[in-house]
Amino acid sequence: MTTIAFIGLGNMGGPMAANLVKAGHKVCGFDLADSARVAAAKSGLAIVATAAAAVEGADVIVTMLPAGKHVLAVWSDLLPHVKKGAVMIDSSTIDVDSARKAHGLAALHGALSLDAPVSGGVGGATAGTLTFMCGGDDAAFAAARPALENMGKRIVHCGGAGAGQAAKVCNNMILGATMIATAEAFVLGEKLGLSHQALFDVVSTSSGQSWSTTSYCPVPGPVPAAPSSNGYKPGFASALMLKDLKLAQEAAISVGATTPMGATAAQIYAMHNAWGEGGSDFSGVIHLLRGREDLTK
Ligand code: NAD
After folding, report:
1. Residue numbers in the chain where pLDDT is lower than 70
2. How do residues 263-276 score in pLDDT, each as one tens digit?
3. Residue 269: CB within 6 Å of ligand 1?
4. 169: Cβ below 6 Å to ligand 1?
């Protein structure tokens, strides 16, 4: 049994922390929101009044927060209370620069640190099947790994500080771009008289194949478990895809990488959000491509 602190008990953090409790750890948690604290208490976490109180005596500290500014603020508050040699894990999706600053703060206080963003969404968080993409030194990775294994299925050490966030934005930039390309092809197929199933049967076994078709097809029917077959309920909300694509663009600008498809994908998801579907699954970008007259499909 390890003593673990968990800060940020929202849609992702709540079920992740619950899996640590199920694995037999003593987990102390804090969130600013009442609703998150109440739900986490029901999962068996000890809820305390401040983040600083949660880290008292903890060997492992996990943060799961909205953005880089929240992570830096929380880590700055917590680190003076963290015991020497404890490992700080940030699983939020944040910009690479903030992730590296967070590692620097931890080093100043003698703590190990890992950026460990996730893929797998709320379903993966609940089932304990997340993929963790980790950045940090070998000692931090080794210290964090047992707790990560209680929350995920695949734990990948991508490299040094910030490497986990770098892998995350690269992966999601591919995902955003392939989803738009897939949705475009299905709209073109409709206009050419192809059935959704016929196009799916061909693409899913041909050179146009990708996860965006086989696991997450943007039209209802061919993949029953995909959000498209369930009213475009997320899944992975378009607002979160836009967030990740913006992070990818910030990263690209900071290192001078040429990413025209990623830049276009960010603009198209900005339009999808402005169109009013930010809370729907990101595969709903197909509605934007079809246009208003075809919203019933
Ligand atoms: P969420 O908004 O449901 O949860 C964030 C929680 O952090 C909230 O409960 C909020 O009250 C809390 N919080 C904010 N500031 C705080 C502070 N200073 N102290 C304590 N608590 C604080 O968001 P989420 O969906 O759980 O996502 C969390 C992170 O995971 C984000 O970075 C997101 O991009 C990433 N992510 C989300 C998904 C997903 O499908 N939801 C998938 C992969 C990655």
Report:
1. 293-297
2. 999 999 999 999 99
3. no
4. no
Map residue 217 onto helix, strand or coil. Answer: coil
Q: From the CB of residue 20, how many other CB atoms can be counted at a distance below 10 Å? A: 24
Amino acid at 209: Q
Distances (CA, A) of 179 to 51, 117, 193, 262, 273: 38, 21, 21, 12, 15
Tokens read off for 209 = 């194949």
Give distance in angstroms: CA of 93 to centre of ligand 1.
9
The CA-atom distances, in angstroms, between 148 and each of 93, 120, 139, 172 are 16, 14, 14, 21
Q: How far apart are CA 215 and CA 222, in angstroms?
A: 9
**Cα(120) to centroid(ligand 1), Å:** 14
Active-site hit among 42, 83, 153, 168: 168
Tell me, yes or no, if 84 is annotated catalytic: no
Superfamily of domain 166-290: N-(1-d-carboxylethyl)-l-norvaline Dehydrogenase; domain 2 (1.10.1040.10)
The structural domains of the chain, with segments of one domain joined by +, span 3-160, 166-290
Q: Distance (Å, rounded) from C-alpha 184 to C-alpha 268?
A: 12
Could you tell me the maximum CA-CA distance found in the chain, to the nearest angstrom?
65
- Distance (Å, whole) CA 16 – CA 152: 9
**pLDDT tens-digit series, residues 9-61:** 998 999 999 999 999 999 999 999 999 999 999 999 999 999 999 999 999 99
Which of ligand 1's atoms lies nearest the C-alpha of 234?
40
- Residue 8 CB–ligand 1 contact under 6 Å: yes
Span 3-160: which CATH code?
3.40.50.720
Are 133 and 158 within 8 A, CB to CB? yes
Task: Say yes or no: CB of residue 90 within 6 Å of ligand 1.
Answer: no
The residue to which tokens 């992570």 are assigned: 71
